[in-house]
Specification:
The chain is α+β, with helices and mostly antiparallel strands and about 190 residues long. Helices cover about 15% and strands about 35% of the residues. Bound molecules: flavin mononucleotide.
């Protein structure tokens, strides 16, 4: 154990953290469901490792493991949909992440409704409160990092609630549920940073 010097009355007791565990405190959120389709085969996978890369164009970087069935569906079709589920879908989210589309049709297995997209052929998941239709715009980092750079080309979101209860993965089988919002710090933002 180490004592890290902060303010006198706020000394934090710390312990070494294995570098392969640092994601526990950095994990992005929310957990999403990625739907895809290629040559008559459709699928859904659960994904936690995504990041916003740019606003205009609207780019998202996603880590998709090469062993996943979704990997080839998305790489070959160059499309997918990022669907954001609410906490009420958490059981299905976990089960979707623990099964493979090689063996089952996850839309049927988990009773989810496939909807037609506006811009892509991959199906949207109707039960999710937000659906982002994406095109693969940069595949250069796939081979080295399994990183898909996607552009969101169409997006839809439920009209209410404004802040749906999302689920965020902490690793080790533990989820964090989205909680309270505050606008207390809003006045300190510069308008262009909002
Ligand atoms: C909470 C959770 C988060 C996950 N995050 C990712 C992820 O970011 N990238 C990834 O490749 N797999 C992730 N997985 C694993 C895939 O969802 C899992 O391998 C899935 O079964 C792949 O399905 P597929 O073979 O049908 O494509 C996650 C699973 C869970 C339960």
């Amino acid at each position: 154990m180490f004592l890290i010097w902060g303010h006198e009355d706020r000394l934090l007791k710390k312990k070494p953290l294995p570098v392969d565990q640092i994601r526990r405190f950095l994990e992005p959120g929310p957990i999403v469901l990625v739907s895809s389709a290629y040559r008559g085969s459709r699928n859904i996978m659960t994904m936690g490792w995504h990041m916003v890369m740019e606003f205009q164009p609207s780019l998202i970087g996603c880590y998709i493991w090469s062993a996943n069935h979704s990997f080839e569906l998305i790489r070959k079709s160059r499309e997918c949909v990022i669907n954001i589920p609410e906490v009420k879908l958490a059981l299905k989210v976990v089960d979707i992440g623990n099964t493979s589309g090689r063996d089952i049709d996850k839309f049927e297995e988990f009773g989810l409704t496939a909807e037609r997209g506006r811009q892509v052929k991959a199906p949207l998941i109707a039960e999710c409160f937000a659906n982002y239709e994406c095109r693969l715009v940069d595949s250069r980092l796939i081979r080295k990092y399994s990183l898909f750079v996607l552009e969101v080309v169409a997006a839809r979101v439920a009209v209410a609630p404004k802040f749906p209860a999302t689920i965020h993965y902490r690793g080790d089988g533990v989820f964090m549920l989205s909680g309270k919002n505050t606008a207390r710090y809003r006045p300190r933002f510069r308008p262009e940073m909002l």
